[in-house]
Each structure stands twice: as structure tokens, then as C-alpha cells.
């Protein structure tokens, strides 16, 4: 009997080990993908989530009007991202460089054109003139190594059917599929 019990115990141990290996293998892709996105060499997904390129009201170059022109950047991952050295540019080459700012997981920061006091949710380019063209332009985000991260276009720069444009204010805007620098 004892030989029969030990054989049964060995079989149970083998079945348990195989089951644990199968469960571990099934969980591997999820944790590997998560590690890929948020591990060393952080691959968190940053997107330009919204753009207010035409400040509401009169364009009178007041600081209030300038700060109603903005670009929002959202971290769609769960991990915080250090934006220090990232840049946001327009088609004319106006560039804003982020300073010491950590964008938490699932958080958004709004980049205003005018002058103001930076916070965790709002930063200011400290400009005295409008940056984003009302008719057509592209906002492009680059990482701290100068590599393309995301862009958002409106007007003729956006081609209907590319990216995931949205209709707003009677015009299309969205990601420009061919815009990689």
C-alpha cells in the first residue's frame, strides 16, 4: 500500500506542477507586456489627448487669452513618467521644453501658451504671442532623446481617415499618420 500511496502522491505532485506551470505561462504575456510598458526604459504611452488651438473669445494677446490656448498630454499607462527634457513643437518650430515634471499614471498635464505658475496639472510656455495656428498646424511631442512620441493635427495637415481624428468646431483634427521626425 505504501508504494501505491507514494506513486499517487508523485502523480498528484506532477499534476500540481504542470497546472502551476500552465497558470504561470498564461499570466506571462500580461506581466511581460506590463513590464515592457513600465519597466526600465519606460515605454509608458504618452498621447496628445486634446488641443485648444483657437482660444475662445477675442484674440487680443492678453495673458488670459494666451492661456486659453493649450495642449493636453496624457499618460495612459499606470506608471509615472519623467517629462524632463521632453519637447512640444508646432509646425513653425516653436518649441517648449518640459522642466522637472513627473506625470503620474493616467494623469494629464495642460501646456498653456501664456505666462503662469507651473503646477502638476498645468504648465506655461511663458510666451507673449499665440503659437498654435487656428487654420492648420500640428502639435508634436518628442521624448528627452528627440524621438517622436505623438502628434495632433488640424486643418489641411490632417487627412481624413488617418489616425483617430475627432470633429470639433466644424473642422477635423487628429493624428497625422505620416508625421515622424
User: What's the overall average pLDDT, rounded?
Assistant: 77
- SS strand fraction: 25-35%
Instruction: Give the H and E element order.
Output: HEHEEEEEEEEEEE
Structure annotation, total helices? 2
The first-level CATH class name of the largest domain? Mainly Beta
Global structural class: alpha+beta
Taking all Cα atoms into account, the compactness measure Rg is: 24 Å
Shape: globular
CATH homologous superfamily placement of the largest domain = Lamin Tail domain
Uncertain segments are 17-42, 159-181
Structurally, the number of domains stands at: 2
Strand order within the widest beta sheet:
5-4-9-10-12-11
Q: Considering DSSP H and I runs of 4 or more, what fraction of the residues is helical?
A: 10-25%
What kind of sheet is the major sheet? 6 strands, antiparallel
CATH architecture of the largest domain: Sandwich
CATH topology of the largest domain: Immunoglobulin-like
Q: Give the number of DSSP strands.
A: 12
Region (Disordered): 159-181
Biased composition (Basic and acidic residues): 159-169
Organism: Streptomyces adustus
InterPro entries: Lamin_tail_dom, Lamin_tail_dom_sf
Describe the fold and architecture.
There is one protein chain. With about 180 residues, the chain is of the alpha+beta class. It has two domains: about 1-40; about 45-175, Lamin Tail domain (Immunoglobulin-like, Sandwich). The protein is built from two helices and twelve strands; from the N terminus they run αβαβββββββββββ. It has helices at about 1-40, 65; strands spanning about 45-50, 70-75, 80, 85-90, 95, 100-105, 110, 120-125, 135-140, 150-155, 165-170, 170-175. Strand 4 (about 85-90) and strand 5 (about 95) form a beta hairpin. It starts with a helix and ends in a 7-residue tail after the last strand. Mean pLDDT is about 75; it is low at about 15-40 and about 160-180.
